[in-house]
Amino acid sequence: MPSAIPAAGRPSSPHARHSPHGRLVVPVLAFCGMVVAVMQTLVVPLLPHVPALTGASPGAAGWLVTITLLTGAVFTPVLGRVGDMYGKRRVLLASLGVLTLGSVLCAVSSDIGVLITGRGLQGAALAVIPLGISIIRDELPAERVLPSIALMSSTLGIGAAIGLPVAAVVMENFDWHTMFWASAALGLLDLVLVLRIVPESPVRSPGRFDLVGTLGLTGCLVGLLLAITQGADWGWTSGRTLGLFGASAAVGLLWGRYELRTRSPMVDLRVSARPAVLLTNVAALLIGFAFYANSLVTGQMVQEPTSTGYGLGASIVVSGLCLLPGGLAMVALSPVSARISAAYGPRTALGLAAVVMAVGYVVRFYTSHSLWMIVAGATVVSSGTAIAYSALPALVMRAVPVGETAAANGLNTLMRSVGQACCSAVVAAVLAHLTFTAGGRTAPTLHAYLLIFLVAAGAALAALVATLFLPSDRPRDRAAKGGTVAVSASVTAARESA
Known about the structure:
globular, mainly alpha
């Protein structure tokens, strides 16, 4: 149970109040978040070339993406909990160190085993984002909390949008190892900046580390995500796929029973089962699904040859640049989202975001023959994502004790990752089954892409439904002076849990 905890948004650290670098804390944490998020999509333009570059099979090459999803899903909630218990800055530095090590491994080798190991280490650093959100909540004055966490949360989408065009440019002009050397350099820069500027939070959630709960959560997530990501290749009714789904469900049930009985659980299921937390996590999964469809299909669609009747025959660089305006829109809209949450509440902001994303996919459904309209539709979807990703941590933080902020946001980030994994599986299945022959090659039909847009719009609307069932935004949940997280609600939650 948490000990006496400073109120959210109150500068509890002398460093935060008196350091000349105090105003650099948020930019540094946001930069760390963007670097970590870039790693999630960095290898996507490289994947078609990996078999020729490394001698690996296409299936093995696919693990360069799958492994980051698995390690990110496992380590994000675990390291969030460890940060709550032993120090968020300490765990943040460890995560950045792991990212740097993984980048170096990928930079010095062309062996597929080493590359998969390095990518796994890069994925484990995804915990940087919830840790950064938690540090912001602990260290900043109240009026700066909401816009700062909005920016920090949005880095997950911003980095993913920026990573694709940057990687494409590197692929076109340099040796492919260069992007991993650049990743290592950015990781080292992050380490130096955090050491010099980011303070350690005094907020702790004491208790014993739940090793059994960690192993149970790991087994459940690995089984579930392996079945989702590999099901299309293995067959959705194959023994391996069904066996993994069944094993994941069984382990999950045993894990949940254990977590409810232990005094210091890895995930506080009683808190997670509160409607305000549960529905926020459901919405996060659906928003993650809707967001990822935009990233997955935009580049592939514009690269399809003109012989398909709808493709534009664009280069890898052009296809990556199609997502760049969306990334810039996310940067610009994160403070706007904070102001919406401050004025009307994060529930309203999340509902608005879901509507904007659905509208973006409607635009994409009807305007898929023009490059500029494709970019416009993708940017609208990214704009909705920015508002959603900014509102989600605010919803989580007003519903959990202050000492569980990193763990709760880690779980919310995990749900976004699960949504992305589900989206990847759905997109792969649709594009593989709705095909035709054009120009002597097999390609997805236009209807395949349009169906994906409809499914993604449906996910956004389902997120809207989940949002409507959240507890309403009340005036007392907002500070009187234009914009902060619910300080009184946070203190109440801390007292209830003490």
